[in-house]
Amino acid sequence: MNLQEVFYGAEDLISPGLSACPGCAGELTMRTVMKIMGKNTILGVPPGCMAGAGVVGWNRLSGAKVPITIPLLDNTASMLAGIRRYYQSQGRNDVRVVAFAGDGATADAGFQALSGAAERGENIIYICYDNEGYMNTGFQRSGTSSKGSNTSTTPVGAMRKGKAQHKKDLPLLLAMHNAAYVATVSPAYVQDFVRKIEKAKEVTCGLAYIHVLSPCPTGWWFDPKDTIKLARLAVQTNFFPLYEYEDGRFYQTVSVKQAKPVQEFVSRLGKFKHLDQEAIADLQQWTDRRANLLQRLCAESPA
Amino acid sequence: MTSTWISPTGDEGIYQIDTGKWRTFRPVINRDRCTNCKLCGYYCPVSSIKLSNQQQVHIDLSYCKGCAICATECPRGAIDMVREGEE
Ligand SMILES: Cc1ncc(C[n+]2csc(CCOP(=O)(O)OP(=O)(O)O)c2C)c(N)n1
Ligand code: SF4
């Protein structure tokens, strides 16, 4: 599909009125993903902002125009694997089973289920929107919150200066499970985004995992109008590199020639407002290290 | 159950909130500056930017929350945010 077909032609399969915050990248991503996946899809959305915003529906009303279920926070991948296997057993390989889950549900609470499903090669498409915290329940820290994040469970005060640990690298972890397809995507890089979702859609053997960095105006404290700008800056600073993993090989899909300093991204977010130069240098070092690692992985992947 | 919904839980229809009422500012396209490049629609979280029969972008305000991403991303600065209640 070309961009116009996706964004102007395809049917929006999500309820038009969801109570996600204005400027939420999660809502944008979910709508776009479903425009690409199409009607022949079963969607699983665990507790979190998107479920709470109404996409799983209430009572006898649905928030989506496809079958949708709300698994537990902890079992999204295994529940959807079961649904997929049922359809396979009925000869319905054409029914796609897609998870759209927050980073808490993916990296922490539901990680065991996801890890198992990836290792067994369950044929589901798992999409994690990473807003760096448990946003729906009031912005608690998650394993994927960046170091220094001011969250409700890592508040800034005399004793502590936000989260003490660095972010858990989920897409790399899934690549190390040898998942069939792994990719990082950003709503700011639409062409790259659409291509990777289409690729995930076509995976017929094994698990496809997509990780989206999803700027969250309410939890990160920035003006909703800047959501896409920040998503773009995260890539331009190497804070969130765009790459994919397939058949044991890593590919950088958007190359950043001259990375901007991480400070340019960090300084725009209220949740990092308290960071001093030392803390920013620490984030910069972490970013450089990972960019380096990725570069080596891409270079050393057997051709 | 109407034929449009294949969801087993959607037999009374679609759950939707009147998010158009949230807006304090509304996006207005300035036709003199808009080149109809369609970029704005790639970034609207609510899918409120649509094409008319003449293939021209327009903003459907029914569910628009007024986030102003479209106005920020438009490369021509062709979308103005106007306070609700003002012209
Ligand atoms: C086992 C379990 N613990 C706690 C909760 C409460 N809960 C509901 S939504 C949520 C936050 C989920 O965070 P995340 O997956 O990151 O999604 P987000 O809210 O950020 O979109 C929590 C903790 C739950 N539903 N189940
Ligand atoms: S809290 Fe953040 S992730 Fe949740 S709906 Fe609001 S903007 Fe989206």
Describe the structure in your own words:
The complex is a heterodimer of chains A (303) and B (87). Chain A is an alpha/beta fold. Chain A has twelve helices and eight strands. Chain A is 39% helix and 13% strand. Chain A has an eight-stranded mixed beta sheet, sandwiched between helices. Chain B has 87 residues and is mainly β. Chain B has one helix and four strands. In chain B, the strands form two sheets. In chain B, strands 1-4 form a two-stranded antiparallel ribbon. Chain B has a two-stranded antiparallel sheet with strand order 2-3. The model of chain B is unreliable at 1-7 (pLDDT under 50). Classes of the chains: A alpha/beta (303), B mainly beta (87). Chain A binds chain B through residues 3-4, 7-8, 12, 15-20, 22-25, 27-28, 31, 39, 54, 57-68, 187-188, 190, 223-229, and chain B through 4-20, 22, 38, 41-47, 50-51, 62-63, 65-69, 71-73. The complex binds thiamine diphosphate and iron/sulfur cluster. Residues 47-49, 73-74, 102-105, 109, 131, 133-137, 142 of chain A line the site of thiamine diphosphate.
Keywords, separated by commas or semicolons:
heterodimer; A: 303 residues; Rossmann fold; 12 helices; 13% strand; globular; B: 87 residues; mainly beta; Alpha-Beta Plaits; two-stranded antiparallel sheet; 1 helix; 4 strands; binds thiamine diphosphate; binds iron/sulfur cluster
Task: Provide a quick synopsis of the model.
With 303 residues, chain A is an alpha/beta fold. Chain A has helices spanning 3-9, 25-37, 49-55, 76-89, 103-109, 111-120, 170-176, 190-201, 217-220, 227-236, 263-266, 277-300, and strands at 41-44, 68-69, 96-102, 125-130, 181-185, 208-213, 243-246, 249-252. In chain B, the strands form two sheets. Chain B has a two-stranded antiparallel ribbon. In chain B, strands 2-3 form a two-stranded antiparallel sheet.
